[in-house]
Amino acid sequence: MNNKTVFFFLFLFTVNKISIAQSRPQKDAQVWENIYIEKNITKRLIARLNEEGRITNNMINPSFIYADMGFNYKLNKRIHLALAYVLTEKQQPNKPWSTRHQAYFSLTFRKKFNDFMFDDRNMFQWQVQDIYSSPTGRYAQYYIRNKFSIKYEKYFKLQPYIAEETYYFLNEPYVYWQYKFNRVRYFAGIYYNVSLINQWEIYYLFENNFNQTKFNSNNDVANPQNNYVIGIGYSHTF
User: Fold this and answer.
1) C-alpha 205, offset from chain centre
2) N or C: which terminus of the chain has fewer CB atoms within 10 Å of its end residue's CB?
3) What pLDDT score was predicted for residue 97?
4) Torsions phi, psi of 154, nearest 5?
5) Domain extent listing, the chain
6) Which of 142, 111, 120 is nearest to 129 (CA)?
7) CA-CA distance, 108 to 233, in Å (whole number)?
8) How far apart are CA 20 and CA 17, in angstroms?
């Protein structure tokens, strides 16, 4: 077992300990859907559009949608780059919809070992919420996100996978620079390849939010929320 594997499992153990320490987290069942459209410009450069919608509040309230538009670039077989802009609409509790503008850059390292593909994606994300329509619209939020996944690729049609993603929060409006982990996601899913250009995905996701200060409708501090998600996705490549 190499040093990176040991670090990965120690990190998961630490995050679990932190999340267990949270008091009575709120829980919500959700459904997420994704549609991925890709266009090969060259052998290395890909233009893409990703749409996602979410139904929250125990699967009864459509409250989140975004459009992710950007480019992927294959530096070589092992290193992939991505640059994108994201427009997000999110419904706030007892408030109108909130508009968020995001941009991100990611660097992904890939390594195949026998029938397993290992991906380690590292992303820097910038976000501004409600520009010119709220006091916080002048301030940006910054995240560093890491997603580590393992996919079993022995068979073409069905390819199961597991993944883990962590959010490292750098700052928030009106608060001096903060450095802390505040969200972790665990995935288990399967890809179904209809053909070389069409693919379906179904997955289960557990999302744990921690180290966060949230407020309810009475402006009282509310506990972080844990989300239990069923997801389905479809992708097509031109």
Assistant:
1) 10
2) N
3) 87
4) -65, -35
5) 3-237
6) 142
7) 21
8) 5
Q: For residues 190 and 45, give the distance between their C-alpha atoms in angstroms, rounded to a whole number.
A: 26
* Rounded CA separation 27/200 (Å): 28
* DSSP one-letter string for 2-27: -HHHHHHHHHHHHHHHHHHTSSS-EE
Give residue-wise pLDDT tens across range 80-96: 999 999 999 998 776 67
Summarize pLDDT for 6-40 with one digit per residue, the tens.
444 445 444 454 444 445 668 999 999 999 999 99
- Pairing type for strands 26-40 and 225-237 reads parallel
Q: Which residue carries 């031109």 as its tokens?
A: 238
Residues sharing a CB contact under 8 Å with residue 180, sequence separation 6 or more, in sequence order: 168, 169, 211
Counted residue by residue, the chain has a size of: 238
Across the range 146-173, mean pLDDT stands at 92
CATH number of 3-237: 2.40.160.40
pLDDT at position 100, please? 92
Q: Pick the closest to residue 70 from 82, 57, 58, 56 (CA basis).
A: 82
Residues 6+ apart with CB under 8 A from 149: 118, 119, 121, 161, 162, 163, 164, 187
Q: In sequence order, what DSSP letters do the residues of 71-137 get, joined into one string?
A: EEEESSSSEEEEEEEEEEEEEPTTS-EEEEEEEEEEEEEEEEETTEEEEEEEEEEEEEESTTTSGGG
What is the model's pTM? 0.82
Residue whose tokens read 């503008």: 101
Backbone phi, psi, residue 18, to 5°: -65, -45
